[in-house]
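Researcher: Go.
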Amino acid sequence: MRKFTPIVLLLCIAALLFSSCGKAANPPAKAVEDYLTALVNKDTNALSALSCADWESNALLELDSLQAVATRLENLACTAAGTDGTTTQVNCQGKIIATYNNEDQELDLSVRTYQVVEQDGDYLVCGYK
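Model: Structure:
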């Protein structure tokens, strides 16, 4: 049984290395995914923490507009699309599904390009076009 211990240890280390690489591969896209998740979960604190100071009040207004409906994300996938100075543009695929009185309304996420900035090592959503 001791022969397998080094192999298992090496496999565990390799798995940790690969999993940490995947998470850091696209921090701006991950920030938008986290932002949208906080939005549909109606998590005010997380939404504020994921927004730059200039965008925070707009993010909270957007959250307020969803308070009366049930919301969920469907097929969310975001990717960085380029940079404009210190801002990274992020495009997403998928939808926010808002349900009211058993009727679904789909909000297509592909119509927006999210603006992400890095501040003090954190990637924050700072609006969209």
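Model: DSSP finds four helices and five strands in the chain.
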